[in-house]
Specification:
By secondary structure, this protein is of the alpha+beta class. Helix content is 15%, strand content 20%. It has one domain. A hairpin with a 6-residue loop joins strand 14 and strand 15.
Length: 478
């Protein structure tokens, strides 16, 4: 399997009570030694000895009232207060970067002036058990292999680590759902919606540094206390070590119903370019692209994208991981996966299949989650289905109505719709406005605690594989 991009752990359906399964169709495996999730834990309990710097502290004093929207938002001003298009998306992305630059420099430079509470940046609850202690990061993707970045000089696989913050306006949505204690979430329809002008950012670091990946030359480094590091062949079973990582991707998403009325959101991605002009690492973070919809009209026979813009000047390595039909997806995002296509028997193997994008993954943010992050055909969706072909591949719906040669099947296209954030992907669920952290991390961890399942019971050994059916209703091999 090429990458597991869901936050430090392989997904599994664990042996939890039936009532819990109805509200949590897939569960992250923790392993026997993992701590039980709690709302506001700062880290996973593993502290580096004699560490000389301050440790990460979860910022969770979520605003109970909605902060004012920025007057004349610069991202809207950059496009004349109209709609975002493939012609003006570059200006929009540049304005977003400038808007967050002052605070993000403080964060990324480890400045003592980075005080998230005072500056108005907040972390998601129930994620401390995933976080390493130094910077509060957790696994974004593992493992990326060198052949996914052919020609970039990468000589070893790598793991990525991520860190997300919500601004004051966005964090009001955290308060509406979680309140002050984060123990009794409000899961009624309409509650988990973000106000216009909400901004969310995510920094991603790679364990592949310049010594094994030349494109990381000059990148900003953070030292993390981690035990999952594909570059060093650490699988997470040993003791953590202080390892250097390189800053290579930064995502900025903004709720903007005026610029992007179909979905209400604009997703933008910056990537590190060692050859870009500028004096420091932040100057050299250049736009990879932006997207404000899933381009449901763009299929294999009609590939033109109208709701995605990819920067032609972005570094080559960053464009090697674009999603289906070239939709936006950064080198951290895991939009390409080894797949077994659910069609005729035996299922066709498609290694490194472009199978997702930023917004297609986030479009299934709902509770309970009935659709997985990727267009997988198992039910409930999960990694590592038991197959007679290759247990490291994922079963996926056909990207075409007859394999990969025709337009997207209705099953595949379920993940490529430009839905408003108020509309869930599946009936009988509550829409969470394109916020996957809510549904795939925080609420999953909260649900585990409610189910009474111990970390050991949620481990990989407890995984139960369910029958996989193809889209004609026939079992594979039948």
């Amino acid at each position: 399997m090429r990458n597991v991009f869901v936050g430090a752990v392989v997904l599994a359906l664990a042996s939890v009570p039936a009532a819990a399964q109805t509200t949590a169709p897939f569960v992250a495996a923790l392993g026997a030694g993992a701590p039980t999730p709690t709302p506001f834990a700062n880290n996973n309990g593993q502290i580096p000895p004699n560490y000389p710097n301050p440790l990460f502290k979860l910022s969770h004093n979520y605003p109970s009232t909605l902060a004012p929207e920025p007057a004349d938002p610069p991202w809207r001003r950059a496009i004349g207060d109209g709609r975002i298009t493939t012609d003006n998306a570059g200006a929009y992305a540049a304005a977003l970067k400038e808007y967050v630059s002052k605070d993000m420099r403080l964060l990324l430079e480890d400045s003592p002036d980075w005080k998230p509470d005072a500056l108005g940046w907040y972390s998601e609850p129930w994620t401390g058990y995933l976080r390493e202690a130094t910077h509060g990061m957790y696994v974004g993707s593992t493992v990326f292999m060198p052949d996914q970045f052919n020609g970039s000089g990468l000589t070893k696989p790598f793991t990525t680590y991520v860190l997300t913050f919500y601004d004051r306006r966005a964090a009001n949505a955290l308060y509406k759902v979680w309140g002050a204690t984060a123990t009794k979430p409000n899961l009624t329809a309409g509650t988990p919606q973000f106000a216009d002008g909400s901004v969310v950012v995510k920094a991603a670091f790679s364990t592949a540094n310049a010594d094994v990946w030349p494109v990381m030359q000059g990148a900003r480094q953070w030292t993390l206390y981690i035990s999952i590091n594909a570059t060093k062949n650490q699988s997470g079973t040993g003791a953590p070590e202080l390892d250097p990582t390189s800053f290579f991707q930064f995502d900025i998403i903004v709720k903007d119903e005026k610029s992007a009325p179909k979905t209400g959101w604009v997703f933008s991605t910056l990537v590190y370019d060692k050859d870009a002009p500028g004096t420091d690492f932040w100057d050299k973070m250049v736009p990879l692209g932006a997207m404000w919809g899933n381009d449901p009209q763009a299929t294999l026979s009609n590939p033109k994208l109208m709701e995605n813009w990819i920067n032609p000047a972005a570094p080559a390595y960053a464009k090697m991981t674009l999603g289906w039909q070239g939709r936006l997806s950064g080198p951290n995002d895991g939009a390409r996966n080894d797949a077994l296509i659910d069609q005729d028997s035996p299922p066709a193997a498609m290694p490194n299949l472009p199978s997702s994008s930023c917004m297609s993954c986030h479009s299934v943010a709902e509770w309970p989650m009935k659709s997985f992050l990727l267009p997988t055909s198992s039910d409930p969706q999960q990694f590592f289905p038991s197959t007679p072909v290759n247990s490291d591949y994922m079963y996926m719906w056909p990207p075409g109505s007859n394999g990969a040669t025709k337009d997207g099947s209705p099953f595949w296209m379920h993940w490529f719709q430009s839905r408003p954030g108020t509309e869930p992907a599946d009936p009988g669920t509550v829409a969470f406005d394109y916020d996957m952290v809510f549904t795939f991390k925080s609420l999953m961890a909260w649900q585990r605690v409610q189910s009474g399942a111990s970390p050991a019971a949620l481990g990989v050994a407890a995984r139960r594989v369910i029958p996989i059916m193809n889209y004609n209703g026939r079992p594979f091999g039948g």
